[in-house]
Amino acid sequence: RVGPFAIDQSYWQYYVAYKGLNLSLSYLGGDGPLRLLVEPLGCDETASPAGAAGQSAANCSDFALVVQPRFAWYRRGSVLVDPSSGGGLVTLSPLGMPPTEVRPTARHSARADALLPEALRAAPHLTLSLGRGAVALCEGNASAPPLAPPSLGDVRASVAASLARESRRYAAYGALSSVKEGLQAATFWNYVYSPAEYGPFLPVSRSWNFVKQAANNDWAYVIFDWDNIFATYMTSLDPAAKDVAYSNFIQVVRSRTSRGFVPNYSAGGSKSVDRTEPPIGAKVLLELHRKYSDTWLVRLLFDDLKRWSDWFLASRAFGPARLISLGSDRIDGFKDAAANAMQGARYESGLDNSPMYDGAFFNATVAVDGAFAVGQMELYDVGMASMFVQEAESLSELARLLGRADDVAALSAPPPAPRAPL
């Protein structure tokens, strides 16, 4: 169960339950050294062995924290674990960078270590028994004087101070303090980085992964078009999170396909080249500029968003009224179970399972050009058409900010999907 997560990553906390044991893990980071406090809760030294039926508490002597350090994303470097050095020492030496040391507040437990699976024992690790209660880990600079074993009391005090500081930020929202805490946690627990993107981003869930043949979970992620853009807007409401919101927004918009639209999903080079999702990027960019006046972001993303809008006119205007209709196209060689089918068009709505789209009214060949075919629902979508018009109006205002008179004129003219039928 996740707890608070500070925007600057100075504090975050969660609980793990396993075979009767409830464990609280609190991290301190941000611009300072990384510290981890691991606290077993509700221990009972008289309890039966772990996992015994009917027990309400755990004997913490049956449990240990195993620290197995490594580098993410196949980064080059060496990992050294010395269980005998002052109770335990982990040294991480990334290639081309100063080494970092990590020390625990408890000694390596040879007794608990002997019970670990052989594969785990063969890897560099420390085993810290939870039989005496909480343990902590502290990071230090290995090039500085030797890092002394940390004090559990000092780590507890630092965690308490960081939690109090973060709680004061929520308290500033008065009656909505719990709403602020919950929404911030919901977005920032999904705040991730992958070398496949230019910067960190805010996916809808760490559990979703569309990266094909990902070597391990370090590379697993997916960006969903309007879901991530909503996360940008939500996050941007707190000025402390502006940089996070911008980075997330850039990753989404810059994932656009060669045809010009922002795809329904993008992950490690894989994209839904058959479909998009509702266009809200220009509207959110306009709101970001109204709040922060950062014209550089408008300059960076305007052309991408205008191409997206142009693509809607070329590929999703439908029928005699030329209003927007949801679709999913066929591109020979593209593999996707929903492509050029009713389900793919439903996905383009962003409302994947909405009863509005129950039925079979999909035309797979609205237009055909060799290996490519436009497929669309034979249904005018008032919501999608309205968002398209909102995008055109937002783009017009953004073009005016940039002094692009030709774009202002083009975007202000009545589009083929006119406002009147809406």
Provide the low-confidence segments as ranges: none
Give average pLDDT, whole number.
92
Following the backbone from N to C, one meets helices and strands in this order, namely EEEEEEEEHHEEHHEHHEEHHEEEHEEHH
Number of strands: 18
What is the alpha-carbon Rg in Å?
Answer: 26 Å
Could you please describe the fold and organization of this structure?
There is one protein chain. The chain is α+β, with helices and mostly antiparallel strands and 422 residues long. Helix content is 32%, strand content 20%. It is built from eleven helices and 18 strands. The chain has helices at residues 110-113, 118-122, 152-171, 177-188, 225-236, 242-253, 281-292, 295-315, 342-348, 382-402, 405-412, and strands at residues 2-5, 12-18, 21-28, 35-41, 64-67, 77-82, 89-94, 100-104, 126-129, 135-141, 223-224, 265-267, 270-271, 317-318, 323-324, 330-331, 362-369, 372-377. The protein has an eight-stranded antiparallel beta sheet with strand order 1-2-3-4-10-8-7-6. It has a three-stranded antiparallel beta sheet with strand order 11-12-13. It has a three-stranded antiparallel beta sheet with strand order 16-18-17, with no helix packed on it. Helix 5 packs antiparallel against helix 6, helix 7 (281-292) packs across helix 10 and helix 8 crosses helix 10. The radius of gyration is 26 Å and the shape is elongated.
